[in-house]
Design goal:
The chain is of the alpha+beta class and 235 residues long. The protein has helices at 8-26, 30-35, 40-64, 68-89, 95-120, 170-176, 225-234; strands at 127-131, 137-141, 145-151, 154-159, 163-166, 183-185, 190-193, 197-203, 207-212, 217-220. 49% of the residues lie in helices and 22% in strands. A hairpin with a 4-residue loop joins β9 and β10.
């Protein structure tokens, strides 16, 4: 099991989040609030919420590389948690006050967590996010991809270790990897990685036949032969 770790910068963000949420919520002097035992439970409560936001934002970044859906979900969740907490303790809950006072703190904290996650995961730019056939998302290291092909009516991803059925079109995948020069759109059915090509054989009047490392064959139309050769030999 991976040990629980937290960077000092993130611990600072969580602490500031906790202090901000408690003191803005109760409008107390900071020194008095810290020394008052009646607020200790509130500090623990919001510290745990901050810790949860941090860990979830870290996982969300690694899976999606996106922060907007998560921030919206966090705002809605903390809004409901704060409302339920006030209802349980008998304090007054003001939605307008929450949105104008606490929501900015949540936005700042969540953004800080995401920036920290991006700094701690510099190689995520070399990962592509794809949607599997069951609509779950998966992040695949680009260097592991051999090729993407159409089998029947299903888009299949072939990596060094497995093959995955995707709920994606070749066009959408081509757009996602457009900056990766090692990939080439061979035809309507295949996007191939340069390393997956084992042999290139000319076919009279038909262009080129590619044999991939796993034995799969596909064709390059004669009209694209020159373009393919420029890509293949100059990569």
């Amino acid at each position: 099991m991976k040990p629980f770790t937290i960077a000092k910068s993130n611990l600072l963000i969580i602490s500031l989040f906790t202090v901000g949420m408690v003191n803005i919520g109760f409008k107390e002097n900071l020194v008095e609030a810290i020394s008052c035992p009646q607020y200790y439970f509130d500090y623990i409560f919001f510290f745990l919420i901050g810790l949860g936001i941090y860990k979830l934002s870290e996982k969300t970044y690694v899976r999606l590389g996106s922060r907007l859906p998560f921030i919206i979900a966090v705002l809605a969740s903390v809004f409901l948690i704060d409302w339920a907490y006030c209802s349980a303790t008998g304090c007054h809950f003001n939605a307008i006050f929450f949105l104008t006072s606490k929501a900015p703190i949540i936005l700042v904290a969540t953004t800080g967590f995401f920036l920290s996650a991006s700094n701690q995961n510099p190689d995520l730019s070399k990962v592509i996010t794809l949607k599997k056939l069951n609509n779950s998302l998966i992040r695949v290291p680009i260097e592991d991809i051999k090729y993407i092909g159409i089998k029947g009516s299903v888009t299949m991803l072939y990596t060094n270790n497995e093959k995955l059925a995707l709920n994606e079109t070749l066009r959408s995948i081509e757009f996602k990897i457009s900056e990766q020069k090692e990939f080439y759109r061979a035809n309507r059915k295949y996007i191939i990685h340069q390393k997956s090509i084992k042999e290139v054989n000319p076919i009279c009047s038909k262009g080129l036949q590619l044999q991939l490392v796993d034995g799969t064959t596909t064709l390059i139309n004669k009209n694209r032969t020159a373009d393919f050769k420029r890509w293949f030999f100059n990569l």
